[in-house]
Amino acid sequence: MAAAPVSITVIHLYDEVALDVDNILKPIMDALIGLTFDDDSRVTDATSRRRYLKGTFRLEGVSPALAGGFALGREFVYVRVADAPPQDQLT
């Protein structure tokens, strides 16, 4: 499990009902406790996006997991946890 600061990216591709982006992030972070990190206080950077699945997208350098979600053709949530940027960086 990660002991250093981490970042999380959550992308919700919805079909009919768009959930509030702030209501998606916290339950996912809580579910990752014990799986990806020991405590969600390790998350220092978070990005949450919500997009209509039937929209038009430009996909560049996407992960196989995100591409696989699109291939399903139905609503999905993509989650990526990575090392956080340097803690003295505010860009």
Can you tell me about this structure?
This protein has 91 residues and is of the alpha+beta class. The protein has a domain at 14-73. It contains 2 helices and 3 strands. It has helices spanning 21-32, 64-72; strands at residues 6-14, 43-52, 76-83. The chain has a 3-stranded mixed β-sheet, with helices on both faces. The longest helix is centred in the first third of the chain and has 12 residues, at 21-32. It is globular. The model has no long low-confidence stretch (mean pLDDT 91).
Produce the secondary structure layout:
Elements: E1 6-14, H1 21-32, E2 43-52, H2 64-72, E3 76-83
Parallel strand pairs: 1-2
Antiparallel strand pairs: 1-3
* Strand fraction: 25-35%
Through-space gap between termini: 26 Å
Poorly predicted runs of 5 or more residues? none
Strand order of the largest sheet: 2-1-3
List how many beta strands DSSP finds: 3
Class by SSE composition: alpha+beta
